[in-house]
Amino acid sequence: MFVEVKNLTKKFKVLKGATGRKAEITAVENVSFEIDKGKTLGLVGESGCGKTTTGRMIVKLIEPSGGKIVIEGKDITHMKENEFKPFRRNVQIIFQDPYSSLNPRMTIYDTLKRPLRIFKITKYKDEEKELIMKTLASVGLKPEHMTRYPHEFSGGQRQRIAVARAIITHPNFIVLDEPTSALDVSVQAQIMNLLRNLKNSLSLTYLFISHDLSVVKFISDQIAVMYLGNIVEISTTDEIFRHPLHPYTRLLFQSIPIPNPKKKIKIPQDVGELPSLLNPPKGCPFYSRCPLAKKKCETLKPQLKEVSPGHKVACFLYDED
Amino acid sequence: METTRRAESFFTIMRRIRKNKMALFGTYIVLAFVGIAIFAPWISPYSPTAQDYTVSLQGPTWAHPFGTDIYGRDVLSRVIYGARISLGISFVAVLVSVIIGTILGAIAGYFGGALDEIIMRTFDVFLAFPTILLAIAIIAILGPGMVNIAIAIAVYSIPQFARVSRGTVVSVKANEYVEAARSIGEGKWSILMRYILPNSIAPIIIQATLRMATAILSIAGLGFLGLGVQPPTPEWGSDLSLAMTYIQVAPYLGIFPGLAVFLVTMGFNYFGDGLNDALNPKLKDR
Amino acid sequence: MNDEVILSVRNLKIHFDTEEGEVKAIENVNYDLRKNETLGIVGETGSGKSVSAYAVMGLIPQPPGRILGGEIIFKEKDLLKVKKDEMRKIRGNEIAMIFQEPMTSLNPVFTIEEQMLDILRAHGFSKKDARLKSIEALEKVKMPDPKLVLKKYPHELSGGMRQRVMIAMALSCEPSLLIADEPTTALDVTVQAQILKLLKRMQEEYNMSVLLITHDLGVVAQNCDSIAVMYAGNIVEYGSAEQIFERGMHPYTKGLLKAIPPLEEKTEKLNVIPGVVPNLIYPPQGCRFHPRCGRATRGKCDVEIPTLEEIKDDPGHKLACFNPYGG
After folding, report:
1. pLDDT given for residue B285 in this prediction
2. Which three-class secondary structure state does DSSP give residue A33?
3. CA separation (Å) from C104 to A217, B45, C151, C163?
4. N or C terminus of chain B: which is more exposed, having fewer CB within 10 Å?
5. Helix axes B201-224, B75-111, angle to 10 degrees
6. DSSP B230
7. CB under 8 Å to C226, separation ≥6 — which residues?
8. Which chains touch B (3+ CB pairs under 8 A)?
9. How far apart, in whole angstroms, are the C-alpha atoms of residue C59 and residue C90?
């Protein structure tokens, strides 16, 4: 097991309304999963479900409020920044918006040399330059791109630069936070192929966060579906696509517009929208939108339970008790 | 966020300024005065302090195009050398306040919390006083003189720069590249110096240009009140004050130093506004 | 659907003057929209899909935009030639538009009620009627609790709710043409499905024609009768949904369809269109797609500009390509 997350929780303090009353929201609640070495876990959900917060907690950009994060057998949950620093080399993150994730005042060379200097990876300038050129080539960029600034590149090229920055320290684990959702379809395909090739050639482990099921399906071995801060279903990619169990997973699958005019999707009756995190449902988080909700769903919260080998779901429909 | 998205090249900015007539006008005035200040010893026809009582209080002539004052000093030469004093003191004062103000503001904005409160509330106290009163108070304590004037101007300018820099840093801090920097293990100071400050300089440069104008006005104001640069050093404000004494016999005496103050202040204001438009093109009506 | 054409765009050409140079955003765009039809204009960033729609609304800022030629015939009137006042009337009564981010077109300092009443009163309703009408409009878009929603400010509503309000406002004057510019791009997929379903129902109820602009091939496949595929300022392929998705012949259409990760089967590698979208200040000579096209022939595709022409034996299916698939 390479990455293990147990009961991870994040609460944020927010100001509520015009009066500025303090309130607390639970962005991530008791999230647990494991990722094996060389595998990819896809984390799927809609905006506000806590998938991004989960990703940032794992690379320690956000401090968790509770739970445990174990990477390569070491508990990193409460490490101080200087203790965690050696891990940063192994644990990288790629962000959604390549227009804001690169420093506009740094050339590509400067952007890529920073991790090398920080972790003292190369000794000499020649060595540094060679490694930067090699890394750029591996993401499909040319040596002459080194001296340019981010604004001279297209979105897809910038995301390649961000990938280069993430892999230049030879990490084992990368969190990808919606890496293609700011890109056009044809460019998305280029980046997805690149990410998949890198995963194989560098034997990387991924946590792939996205709202787009088709993209997640392409790259993931396992998929976890999040809703309102909770994982509601988790299984292997094949299994979850063949037998989606949770009513939310089903709604999600049914809502995807399929690019085939002959296969019209059947949208269930209006199911409303996400409840506010400031005023979450008491029982099952999906209660307010669930077409199959029962009485006890309103007050009791179903726990994630294994219903078949490797397939866990948090729903009373599959709970015999 | 939009404004930090592109690192504007020097040439792009110059091209935008060239399209903006008022900004271009301001730029020319500023450049002209900077040129005059630098080359003062070569272009001024006389020494600014040389007295010649044979030509005392003369109107403009070919020999003295701006006339002469009560001591027979050449007004043109005094206006030329005056540019040196005004621009020199302003430049030093603004430079010092940019450096100190920007760094303190950036620290407040970047680290936040109690440090932010302490720094910014202290500056709020300074900002509560009218600038010229603050300057007069400081001169009253330190005494007049070029260095003390520069200090006085810097003291009231630092809080302004701190404010601008804090605001910019807080917004730049929210960019994903700052998080990306943390994720590759950059330290706090490195993030501030390499990622945040370089992306915060545009508003500070604009502010500095506009501050030059106020600084020049303050110097002239202090000079006029007799609290500034002391005679016989050529300074526009004190020359204006002298001219006022003889306004009935020689009304032209005040025109040229006054015009100089007016022009250079206007120049810096137009230049600063133009720079603002050039660096934030989307704010401009097209 | 019947054959009455209500909107006809002919040889539209729009350029923009920017600091870097003249962006040749729309080169030659032609399409017809029939009564009750939904036409999807699909393309990637910089294809010009939105510009062409803004032109129909008379919303191209000039300068920097320059409409260099063409006609936009709406109900026998050339919208490029009508006076500003008349255009404003057409915009309110006969053509309505909804945008990607409703927040940008709703005024944050007024309640929904104030904004809806404003529009309705401008169209001659009395205050009382306008109020009834606005509640009715919100009910039509399946807004839960319309009376409560009327009292709210835009920021108090969720993205999906705001889009429903926008649709209610757009349809309150019963336009015959609705332009929807990426109406669901900012929404979550479950909400998107509901909004698209709503649009479909509204179209049937009001006998509207809809111009749906999107980058999402899934959305056009599910919602459009006809589809225009745009690339770098030109329509490269045009036809019914079936013609495009099943018999698509343009290398760009084909490439785009194959670049979507499939939901139904497993893939190891996605099809890629090499290169990037051209800079439209310096568009490629000849066919603008030729530098990225695997089928381009030298001396032909890089010299001559292909025009959109109907394919023999496939009525209604138009193509701008010298070397199409299956051709």
Report:
1. 37
2. strand
3. 34, 62, 19, 11
4. C
5. 140
6. P
7. C37, C38, C39, C40, C238, C239, C240, C241, C316
8. A, C
9. 13
Could you tell me if B199 lies within 8 Å of chain A, comparing CB atoms? yes
Give the position of tokens 């669930």: A290
Q: At what angle do helices B201-224 and B252-279 cross, to 10 degrees?
A: 170
CA C153 to chain centre: 28
Task: Tell me the chain B residues in contact with residue C62 when contact means C-beta distances shorter than 8 Å.
Answer: none
Q: Residue A152: its chain C contacts at CB < 8 A?
A: none
Give the pairing of strands C95-98 and C177-181: parallel
**Per-residue pLDDT of chain B in tens (286 residues, 90 and over written 9):** 233 334 456 777 777 777 788 889 999 999 999 999 999 999 988 888 888 888 888 888 888 888 888 888 898 999 999 999 999 999 999 999 999 999 999 999 999 889 999 999 999 998 898 888 889 999 999 988 889 999 999 999 999 999 999 999 999 998 899 999 999 999 989 999 999 998 988 899 999 999 999 999 999 999 998 888 888 889 999 889 888 888 888 888 889 999 999 999 999 999 998 888 887 654 433 3
User: Domains in chain A, start-ordered, CATH in brackets?
Assistant: 3-90+169-318 (3.40.50.300)
Task: Give CATH for domain B33-283.
Answer: 1.10.3720.10
Q: Which of A233-247, B67-81, B125-139, C143-157 has the highest mean pLDDT?
A: A233-247
- Are B82 and B234 spatial neighbours (Cβ–Cβ below 8 Å)? yes
Q: Is the previous residue joined to A309 through a cis bond, with omega within 30 degrees of 0? A: no
Q: Tokens 């890109």, residue?
A: A183
Q: Calculate the alpha carbon distances from C239 to A124, A307, B162 in Å.
A: 60, 47, 60
C5-94+175-319 carries CATH number 3.40.630.30: no
| Distance from the A297 Cα atom to the nearest Cα atom in chain C, whole angstroms | 21
What's the confidence (pLDDT) of residue C194? 84
Measured between alpha carbons, how far is residue A271 from residues A165, A249, A290, B86 in Å? 42, 13, 7, 71
pTM equals: 0.86
Task: Find the radius of gyration of the CA atoms of chain B.
Answer: 22
What does the alpha-carbon distance between residue C113 and residue C118 come to, in Å, rounded to a whole number? 8
Assess C64–B contact: CB distance below 8 Å, yes or no: yes
| Amino acid of residue C32 | D
* B7 close to A (CB below 8 A): yes
The radius of gyration computed from the CA coordinates of chain C, to the nearest angstrom, equals 21
